[in-house]
Amino acid sequence: MILRTLHLRSFRAHTETELALAPSVNLLYGPNGVGKTNVLEAVHYLCLTKSFTASRDRYAVRKEAPYFEVEGTVTGVRQKPMEVRLAYVPGEGKKMFVNGAELDRLADIVGVLPVVIFSPEDADLTAGGPSERRRFVNNILSQARPVYMDDLMKYRRARRQRNEVLRSYKKRPDPPPNALIEPWTEELVSLGSRVIHRRQQFLQTFVEYLTDAYDQIDAVAERPTIEYDTIADLAPDASVDDVEEAFRAALDRKMGQERDRGTTLVGPQRDELIFRLDDLEVRRYGSQGQHRTFAMALKLAQYFYLDDRSDTTPLLLLDDAFAELDARRTAVFLDLLRSNAVGQTLITATGRDLFDQAVNFEAEAHRALSVERREGAAHVETTPSSNQDPAEVH
After folding, report:
1. C-alpha dihedral (346, 348, 353, 358), degrees to nearest 10
2. Mean pLDDT confidence for 159-177
3. What domains appear along the chain, each with residue ranges and CATH number?
4. What are the helix and strand counts (H, E) for the chain?
5. Could you read off the pLDDT of 191-233 as tens digits, one per residue?
């Protein structure tokens, strides 16, 4: 997959920005706060219909603008170039268009344009709460297996409906009648068991990618592992039927608590992933360096896992990823950029000296773009090379 052009309208710091991108390394450099990360965020919107930050869509609309729009031309996915456009209007929501035709569902684009983002926020993967790790798994599986995302979305709807029933009977002396709650419980168990089963299968395979990635990054012979803490202690070869049986048993055990609290207390929304190096639990006892290395290995493993399971090479976004890496870990990423191991990459950084030593920006395969603020808006300018005149892009 190659993103050839990118157009931002009223997006964050950008009033009107149009970029022509190179097929390999694209470096966006400049001071902090000028709009570099906004470009990567816009790409993430095109690929996954949402930001990689926790902010709401309306915060991505430039001040006093009525909407934002992101548009890109992509090659290497289908026989002909794809024109992909996402538009968001506050109060009306988002719409996605491919070659001019509106998609029936935003989710239909997920997995078509695979993407991996590595940013400073990835520290939360190893140091944050369980929701960060569930989100990580959901991101990978949704891009690799669209049926997983369908089941997950339907599961969430069933859980919301079941919770409404439980809440409505929370202060009543009698429990909800079976005719009212059982249909949602059945859907909860059926869909939730498929989600759990796919997560379990995925993690058994993914840990091999994680081990390979960790070997590339760290010279210490520590073995990374992932423990999956879910509704029960499931066997590695547990079937969906086995998961359903465990799910129902767990619901039975929690029935009284669910009635008292008015919410569903069993299911994949409570799953936890425990990362370990040998016997050390990283979240609780890992050093700062071990956290950084593990997070970096997770993202590299994600990239190569998706690369093996997608019809096209994923796009790699590195948002200020080198700022806190030591020399060894920095060298690993630079070696990847120099090799053919990864496809197109978009990188943000405050300077370009480090990258000039590793990447030949005189070559057509790579491009360096400076980003600065002018008159309150972000401006991007292609760095001159020996075979190209300076070209400001607005």
Report:
1. -30
2. 91
3. 1-114+313-394 (3.40.50.300), 122-309 (1.20.1050.90)
4. 10, 16
5. 999 999 999 999 999 999 999 999 888 766 789 999 999 999 9
pTM, to two decimals: 0.92
* Whether residue 78 has pLDDT greater than 70: yes
Q: Return the structure tokens found at 311.
A: 């019809």
- What is the rounded CA–CA span in Å between residue 47 and residue 344? 14
Torsion of the alpha carbons at 322, 327, 328 and 330, rounded to the nearest 10: 20
| Distance (Å, whole) CA 212 – CA 296 | 12
Q: What is the pLDDT of residues 335-350, one digit of tens each?
A: 887 788 899 999 999 9
Residue 182: which of 198, 153, 162 has the closest Cα? 162
The string of DSSP letters for 192-228 reads: HHHHHHHHHHHHHHHHHHHHHHHHHH--S-PPEEEEE
Place of tokens 């465990």: 246
**Tokens 């370009």 label which residue?**
352
Closest CA to 280 of 234, 323, 223: 223
Q: What is the dihedral of CA 74, 80, 83, 84, to 10 degrees?
A: -60
Q: Which of 300, 314, 319, 384 is nearest to 27 (CA)?
A: 319
CA 25 to chain centre: 20
